[in-house]
Amino acid sequence: MGWKATMGGVKVAGGGGGVEKVRCPSVAAVARSRMRPWVLRATTTVLLWTCVMQLTAVGERWGPRVLKGWPSCRTAQEAASAALAATRLPMPVPVVEKAPLPPKRIYRNNGYLMVSCNGGLNQMRAAICDMVVIARYLNVTLIVPELDKTSFWNDPSEFQDIFDVEHFITSLRDEVRILRELPPRVKRRVELGMFHSMPPISWSDISYYRNKILPLIRKHKVLHLNRTDARLANNGLPLDVQKLRCRVNFGSLKFTSDIEELGRRVIRLLRQNGPFLVLHLRYEMDMLAFSGCTEGCTREEADELTRMRYAYPWWKEKVINSYAKRKDGLCPLTPEEIALVLRALDIDRSMQIYIAAGEIYGGKRRMAALTSAYPNVVRKETLLQPSDLMFFQNHSSQMAALDYLVSLESDIFVPTYDGNMAKVVEGHRRFMGFKKTILLDRKLIVELVDQHNSGSMLWDEFSSLIKSVHANRMGAASKRTVIHDKPKEEDYFYANPQECLRDPNLLRTS
């Protein structure tokens, strides 16, 4: 038969009639034959690894001498890193040196001064400067001021939400001790009502605080001043008092890093499109209700403003003649009036007009004349994304801080009403080197606008008169007006801090 079979290691051949026995390889022999290639591979690997290690050691010892000057594919930075690693030295880390802190002023503490600020951002800003001065000259410890949360704006912001509190404390440590809160023992006394609270007399000089306020602090240990606006006089104060007010205002009251960064972003966006003018357009609902000015408003709007005025008991003036007040120059200019003034002053039509204000009362209807004359009217809300302003919404003081920063850096600043922001920004811009600030003569403007609108004065004459009236009202250096016994009618210190100007020789009599 022509077939073969293997069975049990016996080879059976058919067709030849015989059986041939074949020797089977042993199991050990098969295993050795299979392991031989693996042993060979392992041995080769060990030998190669040993060679590599030896070459590396030789290279580290002799390489720098033998290969010195040879071209290398490594970059200079990689070579430097390798050299540092070889010597086991860490890479150098840049050291940012902090500005040295001023030395602490050592004085005997006469007690603690707590203050509750009132009003809007810039009213509180000026008050904080005054309170630092008072604490310094009474040798007391100042507690970080409490900000107004009950005014029209109903802003819940704390001091540290608007200002850099750490900078505020440390930058003044050589003048006065400032704490974030009362020490525990003193705090318990306050909680038990063991303190004195009062509003100081407005427009007082420093002697009032030494003679009247200091004895109260020594008696009660803790004094709470519950109103702080306009509590120091404009004039007649020692030079070092005035200079400390400036130091606090222009150096120690920095806004938080978030506000500062957002302000820089707005300024960059504006600068990309050329010069810009900041218009502090005080034509918001609260200002109109407070002042009683209703020029250009409908009957329904005038009634709404009147109801609002009566709703706030601390707004003492209720019955107001809007017509008479406007004629006396005591009303904020309307958007229509300011559009005529800017055109008369030859402000370029392409100039960016940044509106530093809240919501304009009357909306687009009242803004139509201004946006028609100046198409590039912008606001922070139009320059930024809603997400950028998300954390500032419903915090009017933080939004005002943003407008403050932009106002400082503007090519031209034009306030339409002499409120606290207008005054404080004006003074800050004077301090920065008399940056152009157009101080409008509202009484004369209203008279000229009415004549022009009635047709009794042509445009050329109107424009010429507006220019001539404001030629010397551009925020240049000038001496403060002093009116004895009438501090409210004097030039405000924070609008014209003449003692702090860098070149007092430039001062002229206004």
Verbal overview:
The protein has 510 residues and is of the alpha/beta class. The protein has two domains: 112-252, Rossmann fold, CATH 3.40.50.11340; 257-507, Rossmann fold (3-Layer(aba) Sandwich), CATH 3.40.50.11350. The chain is 46% helix and 9% strand. The chain contains 19 helices and 14 strands. The protein has helices at 27-66, 76-86, 121-138, 159-162, 165-171, 184-191, 206-220, 239-252, 257-271, 285-291, 299-311, 322-327, 335-344, 363-373, 380-383, 396-409, 420-431, 442-454, 459-470, and strands at residues 4-7, 10-13, 19-21, 112-115, 141-143, 178-179, 196-198, 222-225, 276-280, 352-355, 377-378, 412-415, 478-479, 508-509. The strands form four sheets. It has a five-stranded parallel sheet, covered by helices on one side. Strands 11-10-9-12 form a four-stranded parallel sheet. A hairpin with a 2-residue loop joins strand 1 and strand 2 (10-13). Helix 10 crosses helix 11 (299-311) and helix 18 (442-454) runs antiparallel to helix 19 (459-470). The longest helix is centred in the first third of the chain and has 40 residues, at 27-66. The radius of gyration is 40 Å and the shape is globular. Mean pLDDT is 86; it is low at 1-31 and 56-89. One of its GO terms (molecular function) is glycosyltransferase activity.
